[in-house]
Write a structure and sequence with these properties.
The chain is an alpha/beta fold. It contains nine helices and nine strands. The protein has a six-stranded parallel β-sheet with strand order 3-2-1-7-8-9, sandwiched between helices. Strands 5-4-6 form a three-stranded antiparallel β-sheet. Bound molecules: ligand BV8.
Length: about 240
């Protein structure tokens, strides 16, 4: 680990699995309850808004009932103590990174605890349900949808993400299957800008071959170990 200053961390559903939030592609994955085309696309929302609202109402309640696990806590500590650039780009819609105390967090696929008004474009923190079409607090119209990036929609803050990848000395991917783009392409962008790449995951992902190093195991064990390692190295450098 030569002089590492700027770190980009990508997290996926696997980092929240030990907090009791189900992942997408395990055998009990979320998608199997509902075909993807039904709940995570604009077309699905237009076709059956009630089903999609209820799907995210359920996810929102699960998020509120979940607690951060040691992996979230370790990243929050790293965020607090790392003096270089650090950006946690999460594909997750839960707020467990923030509740663990992390600040430099970017939700590229939106947030489960946010509602987006398709009439006036306002976004509101939302912890209740949307299935009964409540009025937008800003404009009063019943046009609120989950503030989620669905398939076919542009992920949030892509320019900021690629700028961070362009400056990165280290890219770490945690708890993601590498199944969905553009997130699955970030490791290549990091390599192209000369960053070292590390994957921490329960099992090999679709992109494992692209990483300099892959460590297999639960995030609650691997992430605290890695965070300690990188902080001790920085102190010793
Ligand atoms: C876009 C919504 C363009 C929120 C999600 C290029 C090639 C092929 C296809 C495409 C392409 N570019 C775009 C596409 C289409 C599509 C796509 O990638 N399709 C896939 C299926 C091939 N991408 C898009 O549509 C994206 N949009 O590109 O727009 C555009 C251009 C111009 C104008 C407009 C648009 C948008 C994608 C976002 C979709 N929304 N989520 C929600 O409902 O939650 S995706 C969803 O799945 C997640 O957000 C995440 O991104 C993705 C993958 O999930 P993971 O987080 O990785 O979870 P998964 O279950 O898959 O894996 C968990 C991993 O954890 C496993 O590896 C497991 O082993 C591990 N694990 C489990 N337990 C633990 C653990 N690890 C450690 N510890 C544990 N305890």
């Amino acid at each position: 680990m030569s002089d590492i200053r700027n770190i980009v961390i990508l997290t996926g559903a696997g980092i929240s699995a030990e907090s009791g939030l189900r992942t997408f592609r395990a055998e009990d994955g979320l998608w199997e309850d509902h075909p993807v085309e039904e709940v995570a696309t604009p077309q699905g929302f237009r076709r059956d808004p009630d089903l999609v609202q209820r799907f995210y109402d359920e996810r929102r309640a699960n998020i509120l009932a979940a607690q951060p696990n040691p992996a979230h806590a370790a990243l929050a500590r790293l965020d607090a103590e790392w003096t270089g650039d650090l950006l946690i780009v999460t594909q997750n819609i839960d707020d467990l990174h923030e509740r663990a105390g992390a600040h430099r967090v970017l939700h590229m696929h939106g947030e489960g605890l946010s509602a987006w008004c398709t009439a006036c474009d306002a976004r509101h923190r939302w912890t209740s349900t949307l299935r009964d079409a409540p009025p937008c607090p800003a404009c009063g119209q019943s046009a609120l949808r989950p503030d989620i990036v669905w398939f076919g929609e542009m992920p949030y803050q892509m320019e900021r993400i690629f700028a961070a990848l362009g400056r990165a000395d280290l890219f770490v991917s945690i708890g993601t299957s590498g199944a969905v783009y553009p997130a699955a392409g970030f490791v290549q962008a990091a390599k192209d800008s000369g960053a070292a790449t590390l994957e921490l995951n329960l099992e090999p992902s679709q992109g494992s071959r692209l990483f300099d190093e892959t460590r297999l195991g639960p995030a609650s064990a691997l992430v605290p170990e890695w965070a300690r390692e990188i902080l001790e190295h920085a102190r010793g450098a």
